[in-house]
Amino acid sequence: MLQAHTPMPNLxxxxxxxxxxxxxxxxxxxxxxxxxxxxGSTEIRLEENHIARELGVSRTPVREAMSLLEQEGxxxxxxxxxxxxxxxxxxxxxxxxTVWAALEGTAAYLAATRAxxxxxxxxxxxxxSFTLSGLANRLDDYADANIAFHQAxxxxxxxxxxxxxxxxxxxxxxxxxxxxxxxxxxxxxxxxEHAAIIAALQARxxxxxxxxxxxxxxxxxxxxxxxxxxxET
Length: 233
Fold this sequence. Notes:
Elements lengths: L1 E2 L16 H14 L9 E4 L1 H8 L3 H13 L3 E4 L3 E4 L4 H25 L2 H9 L13 H18 L3 H21 L5 H17 L3 H22 L6
């Protein structure tokens, strides 16, 4: 099934400064990052004319931006059908989460030794406004905080290459987390596991933090394996 004229979050007119191609690329990529690409069976189709109008540019920089995004594996061109946001198979998603677990676990180890006390305090405050009793009524807010939390751990590891390597993985991991956080009692489990991770990081227990973060991510892989009905191939 195709989704025609998919709304593109976070698009705005591009202006001067960087090249139009680069600006279009940044805006389109930001929009894709904000999409819930695994919520439902509908393929997300990207319409060049519609995007060009949203950005206030011609089709040329949009086409060039799409070419860059296709090279990064975020979009794909299907002859006679158009451009689509890439959705991974179930097996591919599990492999991506496994790679993410390795990266984020290492980042957590590094963060426990490199991050400042203030940075780790800020990390801990991300969930201060949430309670187990009130979580069910704030799942959208919690999903956003959850994503920011995992991005922050990667960043606090202090390894720029790790940040860059995880960026494209995160397009899919983010979408999986946003959907799965509403399933199978995961919000309560997520809050407890986050609290343990934060405690380990703030105690500078690097090895424990790494193990907790890794197992937290691998738990998501197990959840996808058990509960998601995406195609296997």
